[in-house]
Amino acid sequence: MGKNPDQTGLMEGLDPTLPAPAVDDSVRDAEQSTWTPAKIGVWVAISLLGAVAWFMLALVRGETVNAIWFVFAAVCTYLIGYRFYSKVIERYLLKPDDRRATPAEYKADGKDYVRTDRNVLFGHHFAAIAGAGPLVGPVIAAQMGYLPGTIWIIIGVVLAGAVQDYLVMFFSMRRGGRSLGQMAREELGVIGGTAALIATLLIMIIIVAILALVVVNALGESPWGVFSVGMTIPIALFMGVYLRFIRPGKVMEVSIIGFVLLMAAIIGGGAVAGTEWGAAFFHLDKVTIAWGLIIYGFIAAILPVWLLLAPRDYLSTFMKIGVIVMLALAIIVVRPEITVPAFSEFAGRENGPVFSGALFPFLFVTIACGALSGFHALISSGTTPKLIEKERQTRFIGYGGMLMESFVAIMALVAAISIDRGIYFAMNAPLALTGGTVESAATWVNSLGLANVNITPDVLAQTAKDVGEESIISRSGGAPTLAVGLAHIMQQFIGGPAMMAFWYHFAIMFEALFILTAVDAGTRVARFMLQDSIGNFVPKFKEASWRPGAWLCTAIMVAAWGAVLLMGVTDPLGGINTLFPLFGIANQLLAAIALAVCLAIVAKRGTFKWLWIVAVPLAFTAVVTITASFHKIFSPVPAVGYFANNRAFSKALADGKTEFGTAKTVAAMEAVVRNTAVQGWLSVIFVVLSIIVILTALIATIKAIRAGGGQDHEDPAAPSRVFAPAGLFPTPAEKALLAEWNALPADKRTHKAGHH
Amino acid sequence: MNAVTKGFRGLAAYMSSLMGADAYTKYLEHFTTTGHAGPAMTEREFWRDRMDRQDSNPQGRCC
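^ Those are the sequences you sent over. The predicted structure of the assembly is below.
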């Protein structure tokens, strides 16, 4: 085809005995361009409310700001972005055509390719993209104050994150549900495709490792947490057996049973941790937990899916939807007052204790999920496109689904900044700074000279007691801080102060659940990618059922992320503080890769005039990640540059020093030298691979522009024999067409998805 | 009261299709409309097959 196909005249072979599979273009255009006074009034009201909310957040400098303004600013901006910007993308860039059958229709097999109701698929897709990421990044970024993070989350998602998800989903759908890796190879050739594949694999390892690190930090020295999260394993096994042998297919039933057991595990955890033997038995240090997680990760990835992964996935989906609805309700009902400043003292510095580096570029990599997450490109290509019913629904599911995730990130930010700033820094700074006791932590926090911060050891001790932990000092990683914030908000909503410990462990539990599912699934996906790659040289590895190959590849993947995890856990500089930027950079580089592939596709379709819709977010994320990588590689400031730190510690060792900075022993100093070298070289590899992918995409784009278009890798268009509305609510024209379909005789309708 | 029950039912139905509980019904629907040769899988067989296929075709879960 080359040039983009215009809708009119595309489809021959539409069944004349059926109603139209799409609302007529002219009817839809007329519907959209009619602006009744009521419609205008609604959009004026939304814009005004949004403007007032942004004004309250960004310009009014009172003592406090109410959390409700975050909700209004976010929701109004999302609505405007969805109604106007995503429509522009749909209309001028993607040009979906409902007369074309989607893969779920033309490849229907009743199993993988199944037409799914758009609202169900929206929830399904959302549950697949949203996990612990949007709950963690914004918390860590709150070091710089609330405004930079808020702006990036809300504006970033509208112009970048949701655009990426939408585009990748649409292009994958047009290609029968092909994966990002396959599209990269097709569009960018062997070099670009291979670089994209290796980068994806490495990025996955880093992401799994750092998610695991977040869990380890949340569970270290917490008998309650270890017990209740540990109990998820027997609960999942029970659910798996129940579904397999006792009542197959009763998914809802088993999820509810699992949920009840999960609640019992949380409550039971408090009781067990209260006993002497329980406190002793489940009190594990971080290194032990990390090893436990590594062994778990390996076993979970080689066990059959039905036994552990599938039931865990059900639980996690169930919890995800429930928790998010609950949190939104709680924030709207409680409306906490926020005392954190818009820009904190650390916004202009690059040596913050929670994460190091200057606001630009490091804020933009610290918050990845929620604003722009490259990992979504892996989900948006593949599973969801195989389930979409009509082409036009990709805007609602792809763009809208990502807006929803962004909203989760905003709520996490609100929860985290609703707690006292003194507690925030005591919880999130590395042990080497806080000293580990309430007295030393309070002294250190007060010495920072933060406005309105004056914390006493009693408050820190009391907070720990309230949430049922021995200590909350230096529980970095974001999850515990969010849990304290959530407990603080939720106890005002349900249960009162006596429930705080329950809510805290409830939050830790669901974050751990999301992360463990991601670790398990991530290891499996990475293992298959590795098997596939090795299979190019040793064909036997391509056989998924060949046990030795599967086990070997699983072991390699687990060893890779396990090594990074252990490095983070034992890092004298404080793990999260140095590794989290690497997580963000990895995720954003994947976004750059995905957007680069989309850029090449758009150019090949001949849509040059609207290329900027892809080029702008691509340029931004490329600049951010490449700058961040260069800081990490070349910065002479030891707190920022991995190699600068490496040199400083190497020199100290060579000088015969026995302690240096926060490393108090020679072994610790050697660990720093080792860790910084690994982190530095990982940064180098990531950035080089990504630059290769971006360059090959630019070359493909320029070639396509010169040639006036390029080769089209879409599946051939097939006529559609079904109809469904595009968005949440059907428009009048869609309703009329639906009525025509519903009026069909029953025998006609049963054939609506038929193969003839 | 009726509206509350209805709303709750709707929510339960939504959640259950979100979790994929209706997968077998959909498979049967597809099977009968396309008229394959041979009998359809039983519910037990279908779920077994569905899980086992995931073993060799894992789906990513995001962060």
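The first strand of chain A starts at residue 65 and ends at 66. Residues 744 and 750 of chain A are 10 Å apart (CA to CA).

Shout if you want it in another format.
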